[in-house]
Design a protein that fits this description.
The chain has 275 residues and is of the alpha/beta class. The chain has helices spanning 14-25, 40-48, 57-63, 73-82, 84-90, 103-110, 142-152, 166-175, 177-194, 199-219, 224-230, 237-247, 250-273, and strands at 7-10, 33-36, 52-54, 66-69, 93-96, 116-120, 130-136, 156-160.
């Protein structure tokens, strides 16, 4: 990192722990990481490893350069407003990983002149293969953008969007995307059973095929469409499956599903942020 910033994780749930565990695995100094939670019992293992663990959010905010807001969306307003004075006094960069909370609302709750990055990570961050979309308000410096990238890069790739509305599109692609693949793998394994395989064999073949296809896609210079064409021989077995998918309107089905996801993300913001 450009400098060893002190990072406070406000909330010690799964996403927060995935990020700071990724940082530690990459060599980030444990004594530069603060973790807060209401439960002293939950914090004890972190303290034993040398992290700065506290139940006092204000203490962590006073000490940090960057505060990762990792509480549940439904309590974000309460948490941020309760610590508005500390945020205003110490002015850490706020990085929110909560779904549905827009930067304007965070600014209203935290007070004026606060640098805010809104992040949409996804659950593969738990195994360091996540994808995070990032949006920065106008008060975020170039150094703070770089620091945010490096924090989230501990659990996967990071991509910036310039328009905050695009975060809802990120939600539809990568934020919710893992569930789409889980659903398709579920359907493939089920079909394998119906075609005569035992459940274990069908599932193992499905999961390894998904892994292999993903790895080929990420390691190849070819677009997914070209990779598909390369394994689809004319009048072959794969072509018949692809034609069946296309005849049933797979493109339209995916667009409709992802649009519904985007629309729900927009509605969630209205529910969580508008009085």
């Amino acid at each position: 990192m450009t400098q060893t910033a002190k990072i406070a994780f406000i909330g010690a749930g799964n996403m927060a722990s995935a990020i700071f565990e990724g940082l530690i695995a990459n060599g980030y100094p444990v004594d530069q990481i603060w973790v807060t939670d209401r439960s002293e019992e939950k914090l004890a293992p972190y303290a034993a490893r040398g992290l700065k663990a506290t139940t006092d959010n204000d203490e962590a905010l006073a000490a940090c350069d960057i505060a990762v807001l990792a509480v549940k969306p439904q309590v974000m307003k309460t948490v941020v407003e309760a610590h508005r004075d500390a945020i205003q006094q110490y002015k850490p960069l706020l990085v929110s990983v909560a779904a549905g909370i827009d930067a304007e609302s965070l600014s209203n709750w935290a007070g004026d002149d606060v640098a805010i990055v809104r992040c949409m990570p996804n659950t593969p961050a738990l195994v360091q293969t996540g994808a995070s979309g990032l949006y920065a308000n106008a008060l975020v410096s170039e150094q703070q953008r770089q620091q945010t990238e490096e924090i989230l890069a501990a659990v996967g790739i990071t991509l910036w969007v310039e328009n905050e509305a695009q975060i809802d599109a990120v939600t539809a692609v990568s934020g919710s995307g893992p569930a789409y693949y889980f659903l398709f793998m579920e359907a493939m394994a089920k079909a394998g059973e119906q075609l005569g395989l035992d459940a274990e064999t069908a599932l193992k073949l499905t999961l390894q095929t998904a892994l292999g296809a993903a790895r080929m896609s990420t390691q190849s210079d070819l677009a997914p469409a070209e990779l598909r064409r390369n394994v689809t021989s004319p009048k072959g077995t794969t072509e018949q499956a692809i034609l069946s998918f296309q005849q049933q309107g797979i493109d339209e089905m995916v667009l409709k599903a992802m649009t519904a996801c985007r629309d729900r993300a927009e509605a969630l913001t209205e529910e969580l942020c508008k009085d």
